[in-house]
Every structure is written in C-alpha cells, then in structure tokens.
Structure prediction request, 492 residues.
Amino acid sequence: MDLYKKTPLKIYNSLSKEKELFTPIHEGKVGMYVCGPTVYSNVHLGNVRTFMSFDMVFRYLKYLGYKVRYVRNITDAGHLENDADVGEDRIAKKARLEEIEPMEVVQRYTVDFHEILKKFNNLPPSIEPTATGHIVEQLEIIKDILDKGFAYVVNGSVYFDVLKYNESENYGVLSGRNIEDSIHNTRVLDGQSEKKNPQDFALWKKASPEHIMRWPSPWSDGFPGWHLECTAMSTKYLGENFDIHGGGMDLKFPHHECEIAQSNCANGKAPVNYWMHANMLTLNGQKMAKSTGNNILPGEIFSGENTILNKPFSPSVTRFFMLQAHYRSNLDFSNAALEASEKGYNKLMQGVALLSSLKTSKQTSIDLESWIKSCHDAMNDDFNTPVLIAHLFEAVKHINLINDGNETISASDLVLFTEMVNAFVFDVLGLLDESVNDNSDKLNGTIALLIQLRKEARENKNWALSDQIRDELLALEIQLKDGKEGTTYTIN
Ligand SMILES: [Zn+2]
Prediction:
C-alpha cells in the first residue's frame, strides 16, 4: 500500500506545458474531474479513447494507493450546436427531429454510453452528476460573477465579459491564445448578436418560446451556458481548487479556458492544479466524420457490421490497440492496426495463462526487481502505456524462456511475478482475458461426454440412466436429438 510514497509520478500539465511531479492537495487523496459526454447521439469512438485514457489514469492512481474521487459529468442540457453560443441545443434538436421528449434522448444515449464503456471495461466514476441536476448551483455562480462585475445581462441572457476579465487575468492561460489577436482577427459583429464582444460567452441563455428545456431565473426562463456546468459540479464535489481536470484536446478552448475564467471570478482562485488532455483518434489517416462516411461506432467494431474492418474485433483488443499509443499522441484506427493489436493481445494473454503452470527452481535467473521498477518508471512518466506494454512483452519472453527451461524462477519470485503481471495487465491497463469468459468449448465438451455416457448406458440396456441424462439435460434447456448419424443437440 501507499506505493505513491515510493514511486513519484510525473504528469504532463497542459497549463505549464511541462511534466511536473504530482503532489495532490491532500496527502493520499486525489480529486479528478473529467468532462463527460453530451448525450444526444451514440458515443463517438474518439470520445471512447478519451474516457479510456482517463480510466487508465484513474486505475493507475488507485493502484498507487491513492483514494481517488473521480467525477465525470453527463451534459444533458445547455450544449449548443455552435461554440459561439448560437444554434439549437443539441439534445433539443435531436428530440425535435425524432419527435420524442428531450429526456428520452438523454436516457437513450446515457444508457448507450454506459453500455459501451462497460464493454471496454472502464470503471464507473465515483460521481456522475448531470447538468440539469445542478441548475441551482449554476444560478448561484452566475449571480456571484454578476456581483463581481465580470458579466452583464442583455435581453434576459447573461454573458461573461471576457475583455473585462482579461484586464486583470489572462484569458488564454491554458490554450495559449492571445485575446488581442483574436479581437483583431474577428469580423465586426453583424448587429444581430447581443454580446458586447464576440469573445464573450453565455452563462445563461433566455429560452425561445419553443425551447422545452428551460428553468426560471432572475433574468429569464432559460438554460445555463455549457461551460458553466463543469465549474458548478467540479466545485461542488471536489472543491474550489482540486488536483486533476481532464478532457479531450478539443475541449481546451473555449470550454476549459472558460471554466478557468468562471472559477477565477466566482472563487477567486484557479480551479485546477494539473490539466490533462487526451489526443484525437483518426480513421485511416482522416478525421472521423459521419458526413463523409469515414466513421465507425464502437458497436460496429464488435459486430463486424461496417465497411472499415475485415472482421469483428473484441472490446479488449480495441482497448489494447488504444493503450498501445500514449494518451497525448495522435492515434490512427485501421484494419491493419487492429489486426496487429489482436496478435499482440493474444500473445500477451498466452503468456499470462502460462504463469500458473510454470515450474519453479531454487534460483531466479531473471532480474525481477529491475523489471518491476521499469514498469513503474514507464507509468510514472506521464502514464506511458506503450512503454509499459513493451515491458509486458519482455515479461512474456521471460515466461516462455522459463517454460522452456532456459531461465529459472523461485517459488516466491513466481508469486511476485504473477502478482505484478496481473496487476499491470488487468488492474492498470484494464484488459480482460476473453478466453476466461468464453466457456463454450468447455460446455460443448461436457455435453459430448454426457452423450457418450448415454450411448454406453443404452448399449447396456440401462434405460433408466439414459433417460435420466436426456431429461436432466432437457431441464437445462439442452435438447438431444437421436439421428442416423448419432446424437446431436441444441441449446435453447
Ligand atoms: Zn466540461
């Protein structure tokens, strides 16, 4: 336990653009917030990669002995089609197109999101709050920012005054964008916008008459701006200043920049000590997009019903493929890459399976301590999973050499080796041994044995036993059928 005291972890902080030694605010505890999905469509494979990356981070922090509170929200209102606070609410639009209630949209795609993440063996977060469940908290923050003079009201909507904020703080501290440049490069507003400046963002939007998702507020019946929910929920569950905030690279600007500005105004302090961003996933070298057909849903990978892959691939193979790249690197999804990952995954699992049957010796010829250290070093270097996986393949090489009698391991070292391999493969990387779950071979073998015993009973005219085997199998919904070619069966 408390492995974190012995193995210092370094995290690349998007804010400082450097790898920094990780020191949590409260010793032994970590507060982590990750921006969750907007539940208006099936979860995108690129988003799956982001959530899988932070699942790996969550798992490794737990492995190090930290008590982690992992908060990941569900955006079920307020996310407009366009980052410039225009366009329809994404969920409301889907509801209109499908002629269902917005909350039916939310329910359908929240269930889909959970099912897909579970298939990929992602652990559930500690808290999964929703935007609509935290309207009161969001209203409080808006009032606070208004009181402090960093927001203004126009026609029932409230906007954050970015220029005012930038006089004393740096709007661009995370993304590196320069507000002066962006003002210079922005076309003059067409007069339609209520905002003082195009850089301002909505804290509250007045709802149009047809907009269903609305709440009362001092300014209008409306709904909160998208950036506000994460400030409200992270503050509520992790405090005004917490350890880690994660999300996809595409959220750095404007979403996370706005979160920092809101917190600085409302709480008078920067919200996050370590900002982490996961990189994008491309498909056959191109950006994934539904409109061009260069797109694949997670479910289509498992079923094989797609035009991208030659065959189905399991969730664990897909997970292994994703973790073979560092979370901050670009990753390209393709049939060839998945096939290579499947081979690697199978090789790794065969090595793990061999561990239980290795013969032990008096001496250990491999340097176990330095192998364990190299695995920790890899993960402590900003969660370098590809390097960890390379060390796991080294372990497989050792396992095979021990199995062939070319290396030796003592009984106590084998216990430690097995423990460490299992910890890295299953606990930290979160891979599943799919052969363990697939018992069909064992079931088929057992039924074949019973058919053989029944055949022998009939030959010995032991009708009572042969009927008993048939009837008890039938009770288990396994039906035997006697034919000319012998006995076959169906499982209902
Ligand atoms: Zn967010």
Remarks:
- The radius of gyration is 28 Å.
- The chain has a mean pLDDT of 93.
